[in-house]
Design goal:
13 helices; 6% strand; mainly alpha; 9 strands; 3-stranded antiparallel beta sheet; Glycosyltransferase
């Protein structure tokens, strides 16, 4: 089993301001490896092949979208290290999560299936295993008997209607009245990623169509906020703003910039990013705010993953890039030096307070995503 001297790593990482960039890369990579290995050590259920809901739990309560983000962390770690340890768990995951979800990928919540699609596409790209691609396309396209068979997959694309001017419903086949940022941002991102992988024009069309609706319906062009939802029965906008939604909106914008070269998308992404890192923070310490340990415990990690892609984009200036990197490093240093329980290695929902005894899978994943993101920035010589 992997072991790292966490005290030594921490001391060496922050003892001097004269570290070379490649030294920062090495240390963030070591911390990321510690974090992602700890995710397996403390949460992996070897009997059923999925991640438990909490570090002191031996079960998963059926909300499968955290499983997708756990797979994403495994992909991050595998791409960074090439270690078969992570790849093996990715393959176990594919069998275990599908079996636990009644031998399929159906979920009544469209955004949950979108996360499965995004993570399994990345796993396919990393490993070449066609079973990951099969899972991705199953949730994207659905199956012919969706409406009759609850065990089949109601495809993501089938949640699109003209109600409210377009957009994807949050729930696929019931309570069809809410069109949410959380069901449209990840869908635009998935469609854009599918287009970049396979070059199918219809995927590009879907990405642009979904993003355009999201921008027109829920994006505040003045502030950069991404509002939560549109009720198609009342035309009322739910104005709550979460890092989940700003993150996926800007992530889709970055991918569409790659596809089209249209700088408007990058401008949108920077607007949403700037709103997030100036408004959705704890003003006392400039850290992304504590959004809780339940589903919302994943929101910061989702923002970080997509924010990292904006940092890596060739569409932003070096001044903007450095400002974003400074924010990332500040959050990472706070989490590692103050917000991490070291033995076992656990993260909580506030990146300045370490858990006492246990933690939920969602804040653990957000912490892992931050550490893997910093390792990636180091690898790309951005630190």
């Amino acid at each position: 089993m992997k072991n790292f001297c966490l005290i030594v790593v921490t001391t060496m990482l922050f003892a001097s301001c004269e570290h070379a960039k490649n030294t920062k890369e090495i240390y963030w990579s070591a911390i990321a490896d510690s974090s992602s290995t700890a995710l397996i050590n403390s949460f992996w259920n070897p009997i059923y092949g999925y991640f438990n809901d909490a570090s002191n739990s031996d079960s998963w309560h059926g909300h499968y979208w955290p499983q997708a983000h756990a797979l994403d962390v495994l992909v991050d770690a595998y791409l960074r290290s090439g270690d078969e340890f992570y790849k093996r768990h990715m393959e176990y995951w594919l069998i275990g999560v599908r079996a636990a979800n009644r031998n399929g990928w159906h979920n009544p919540y469209i955004d949950d299936m979108e996360w499965i699609g995004l993570a399994t596409l990345r796993a396919y790209q990393a490993t070449g295993n066609p079973n990951f691609l099969r899972a991705c396309l199953e949730v994207w396209d659905g199956t012919d008997d969706d409406m009759e068979n609850d065990r089949a997959t109601y495809g993501i694309k089938r949640a699109w209607t003209d109600d409210g001017g377009g957009g994807l419903f949050w729930e696929g086949n019931r309570n069809r009245h809410s069109k949410n940022a959380c069901s449209n941002g990840p869908a635009a991102l998935l469609a854009a990623n599918l287009y970049q992988e396979f070059g199918k024009p219809e995927d590009k069309e879907w990405a642009i169509r979904i993003y355009t609706w999201l921008k027109e319906a829920l994006f505040d062009k003045e502030t950069g906020a991404v509002h939560d939802n549109l009720n198609t029965r009342t035309d009322r906008i739910g104005t709550r703003v979460f890092t989940y939604n700003t993150g996926t909106f800007l992530g889709a914008a970055v991918e569409l910039y790659k596809i089209t070269g249209d700088k408007t998308y990058i401008n949108d992404a920077m607007k949403a990013a700037d709103y997030t890192i100036t408004v959705l923070i704890d003003p006392d310490d400039n850290l992304l705010r504590n959004e809780g340990a339940g589903d919302s415990g994943l929101f910061k990690g989702i923002f970080i993953r997509n924010f990292t892609q904006l940092i890596l984009s060739d569409g932003i200036s070096e001044d903007v890039r450095q400002r974003y990197i400074d924010f990332m490093e500040h959050n990472g240093e706070s989490l590692w030096t103050e917000g991490t329980k070291k033995d076992p290695l656990l993260f909580g929902p506030y990146w300045k307070t370490a858990p006492v005894d246990t933690t939920r899978i969602n804040p653990q994943l957000s912490g892992c995503m931050l550490m893997e993101a910093l390792a990636l920035l180091g690898k790309e010589n951005k630190l």
